[in-house]
Structures are given as structure tokens and as C-alpha cells.
Amino acid sequence: MPFVFFQQLKILKYEEVESTNATAMQRLKTGGAQNGDIILAGYQIAGKGQAQNTWFSSKGNNLLVSIICRDIQLKVSQLPLLNMLVSQAVYTTVCNYFSENTTIKWPNDIMVNEQKIAGILIETTLQGEYIKNAVIGIGLNVNEDSFPENLTHACSFFSITNRYYNLESILNLLLEQLDIQLLKLKQSNFEEIKEHYEAVLFGMETKRYFRQGETKFEGIVKGVNNAGQLLVETESEIKTYNNKEITFDLN
Ligand code: BTN
After folding, report:
1. Given 2.60.40, 1.25.40, 3.30.379, 2.30.30, which CATH number is that of 207-248?
2. Domain ranges in the chain?
3. Which atom of ligand 1 is nearest to the CA of 21?
4. Which of 87, 103, 96 is nearest to 157 (CA)?
5. CATH architecture of the domain with residue range 10-199
6. Which among 109, 48, 108, 111 is positioned nearest to 84, based on CA atoms?
7. What is the model's pTM?
8. Which atom of ligand 1 approaches the CA of 48 most closely?
9. How far is the CA of 62 from the centre of ligand 1 (A)?
10. In degrees, to the nearest 5, what angle opens at C-alpha 100 toward C-alphas 97 and 104?
11. pLDDT in tens, 75-130
């Protein structure tokens, strides 16, 4: 399939790196990076997760990939849009294998049966009010057969089906989906993209428990706003939350 958004994809394979995102950012810094360059690693010594967390993945078992978007020329205010599109691409890839009970947990965790199968970390360089370059880091748990004890809500293709998968096929599908979704940056409007995102949003229109610091509360997810904040209806009102301000209380 020809790629349109990226035009040309170049996969740079590494056995081991600190973090594929860090390698991609470094490549941008030194001026050697092209739009569509992909850093793929078998292992990360210090894989980066959201909020300064680390990303767990044992050697050679999963997809650890960072895609470079150079001169993307998006407004900083459009970052939520980019996040939704990338989430949708990973979501669709996973759905190709597990169509039921796959959701996007705000802002960008991909869940199967309420367990996290993939995480996304988008890092950017800015120029004024524009995003100049973006590195889209994706960790997708494929053949992981055991997770550390503290990761009580993690899953993989293997843990769901008890069989191993070809990483390359999944990567190809993921890259196709990213190309399709990122093209929408140019073609679609925010409302349309948001509609697709909300249609598969974890906890949408259902009563869930949340945690905010030490407090646990009940609410119903009503969607997201243009700033990418989560809308949660509590007894009295609809409140908006920033990333990491609240977490879902998973069973
Ligand atoms: C999360 O915490 O949910 C985000 C996890 C993102 C992990 C991926 S693995 C490939 C890329 N390189 C990194 O260091 N992190 C991202």
C-alpha cells in the first residue's frame, strides 16, 4: 500500500536502545531525520511512559516503535487532535485482532477487556505556537507472557489468546493505519475526529469510579472537549479534567 501522509517510510532497526523516543528526538536534533523515519527496537533500557513512568517490555517480544513526523506544522492547540488520531490508529490495529471489548482509555491507552495492551507517548518540539516536529512513540504488547507484579492491568496478544504473533505483520498494519489517520489532519474536522474517538472511549456513558489524589468518586464519562480534557458528569455537574488529574479506578 502506498503511504500518503508519510510518503516514504524508513525503518531503522535497533536491537537495544535507551528509548526509541529518545533516539528519534536525538535524530531530529542532529538534523538527520526525515518525515516517516521509524525507530524500531527489540529492547529499551529505559523505555519512557506517560508521566515519568517507565515502559516495561521484555526483550524481543513486543512492538517498541517511534515514528518521526518532521515539519508537521500543527498548532500546539491541535495536539489533542494528533493524540486522538494516533490512538485511533493503534485502536484499529488492535481491533483487527480483537474486535470485542477494545477501547481507548482517555487520553491514549488502548485497552482490551479493561486491561492495557498499548501505550502512546507523543513528544514534540515547538516553534512559537506551532508543533514543528513530533515523535509518536508506541508500545504494543504482543508476545509478552508475563508482566511484573505491579502491572496488574496489563495484557498482550499472547496473554489473551495464548499464542505468538508475527511482530512485522502487526507493525505493517499499524503503519498503514497511522498513515490513514494522520492524513485526516489535513482532511477532516475536529468534530468528526472527536466523534470517532468518543465512539470507542472507555467508560463512555457508563458509571465508573475515578480517583483524584486520595479521593474516590463516581461519574459518567461524557466525552472530551476541544482541549482534549475529559468530561465527567458527577451528581451535580459536568467537570473537565486534564491529563493525570484523575485516573480510572479499575477493578
Ligand atoms: C504510556 O505510559 O502509556 C506510554 C507508553 C509509551 C511507550 C512507548 S515504547 C516506544 C516508545 N519509546 C519510549 O521510550 N516510549 C514509547
Report:
1. 2.30.30
2. 10-199, 207-248
3. 12
4. 96
5. 2-Layer Sandwich (3.30)
6. 108
7. 0.96
8. 14
9. 12
10. 90
11. 999 999 999 999 999 999 999 999 889 999 999 999 999 999 999 999 999 999 99
